[in-house]
Design goal:
With about 170 residues, the protein is an all-beta fold. It has no helices and 17 strands.
Length: about 170
């Protein structure tokens, strides 16, 4: 197993034991955007940041990063078997076919910040949480449906189990 971390200065480090860490690469970013999230999706590393979506390193310490600048900021990403979905500020939703370098803007129907996205393999839905109590769902990442919620608070992280979907919120 490989553990990975990224700091605000775009330096990627990794560890095989969680104790000793090695600098693997620096993401060259001429716009100086903060990177706050790093995920591995089967064959690719994806780094998300304040104003960029950076993707496509199959092995952490080889090759170079491909930068895809994104405004508004990207906050979270999830995937199913065929598509990656990225969400962010001002209602941003972007999708990419697994294995592709291209990202496509999608219509979310909201200008609220979208804070998290998760794939629910039991219900076969992407679920998005956002500000002002926003919950959106989509079976394919392309068409989105707004769901009603009993709160108008900022919805943060999504956790999914076979029996329940839990969304944390900020009051």
């Amino acid at each position: 197993s490989t553990f990975a971390a990224v700091d605000n200065y775009s330096i990627v480090t990794s560890s095989t034991n969680g104790t000793s860490w090695t600098i693997n690469s620096t993401i060259t970013d001429t716009k100086h955007c903060t990177i706050h999230c790093l995920r591995y999706f089967g064959s690719k590393w994806v780094a998300l940041g304040g104003c960029l979506l950076s993707m496509s390193k199959p092995v952490l310490n080889t090759g170079s990063w491909t930068l895809h600048y994104a405004y508004p900021p990207v906050l979270a990403v999830a995937r199913n078997e065929t598509v990656l979905v990225a969400v962010g500020s001002m209602g941003l939703i972007r999708t990419s076919i697994v294995g592709s370098q291209d990202w496509t803007d999608r219509t979310s129907g909201t200008t609220a910040d979208l804070n998290d996205v998760a794939w629910d393999s039991v219900r076969n839905l992407f679920i998005v949480s956002g500000d002002t109590g926003k919950i959106l769902t989509s079976p394919d990442g392309i068409s989105w449906t707004t769901r009603s919620t009993p709160v108008a608070d900022t919805l943060l992280q999504i956790a999914i189990s076979p029996d329940a979907i839990v969304v944390t919120y900020l009051t």
